[in-house]
Amino acid sequence: MGYHSSDSWHAYFQDFAYTNQGRTRMANINIADLPAKTFAELICSPVMDVYVGEGRRHWCLHRDLLGYHTPFFQGQSHIDGKQKFGKIELLEEDPHAFELLVKWLYQGKIDDVSDLPMEKKWDYADACQKLYVLCDKIKMPQLKNIAIDQFRKGCHEAGLVPGPEEMKPIYDTTPPRSPIRKLVSQIAARQIMDPDSENDAGTYRICFEASADFAIDVIDAIRQGSRPKLFQDPTEETGCFYHEHGASQVCKVG
Length: 254
Description:
Blueprint: E1 11-12, H1 36-42, E2 47-52, E3 57-62, H2 63-69, E4 78-79, E5 82-83, E6 87-90, H3 95-107, H4 118-138, H5 141-158, H6 164-173, H7 179-193, H8 205-210, H9 212-226
Parallel strand pairs: 2-6
Antiparallel strand pairs: 1-6, 2-3, 4-5
Helix pairs in contact: 3-4, 4-5, 6-7, 7-9
C-alpha cells in the first residue's frame, strides 16, 4: 500500500541494446510531427514483447519507439557483444489503458471522449484515469495531462464520478500532491457536501481507512469549498445536540 515507484514493476530486459549513437532521448516532438525518415527508423528497430494485466495480454512494440517516448523503456544489455531481445511485464496495469498508450506511441494522439456515444463515455473515462496512473509511473507527462483532461471531460459528459473503489487505487499508486489525488479528493468532498447527493463521509470509509492523505485532502477541499461560510461554533450551540438520548425524549439536562 502507498506509492509504488516504477522500480517495483516486473520488468525484465533480456535485450534492450541501442545503436552506437547512445540511448534515445525522451520525446520532445509529438510522434505525428516527426519527419517520415525518423519515424521509419524508429519502427525498423527490433520489437519487444510486452505483457500487460493479469491475463498477460501481449503486444509486440518497437524497441526504439518505446525508448523515444520515455526513459522508462530505455536500457541496454550486451552479452558477448550480441544484442538480446527483451521482454517487459506490466502485470498490475490495465490492458484498456495500455491500448490508449499504444495508440499514442504510434499516432501521437488518443480519442476524444466527446466523439464517443454516451454508453461508452464512462468506460473510456475510467480507462483514461488508469492511463494517467500508468503514465505517471513510466514518466510520460504530456500524455498524462491529456489523460486527466479526458477523464474529467468523460466524467462530466457521462454525468458520473468515480466512487471509493476507483479512488483508493489512485492513492495507493500515486505520490503525494499528485494532481489526480487533488481531483478525486475534491470530487469526494463535493459529493459529501452536496445536499442532493446520496453519498456521505461513510461512503468513502475504505479510502479514509487506507490513506491518511486522502482524509487530509478531503478535509482541506471541504475547508476551501466552504469559504467564506464558517460552520456554527459547536461550543455555542444550545439544546441537547451532543447528548445521548432518543430524539423524541425530553431532555432533562440544563
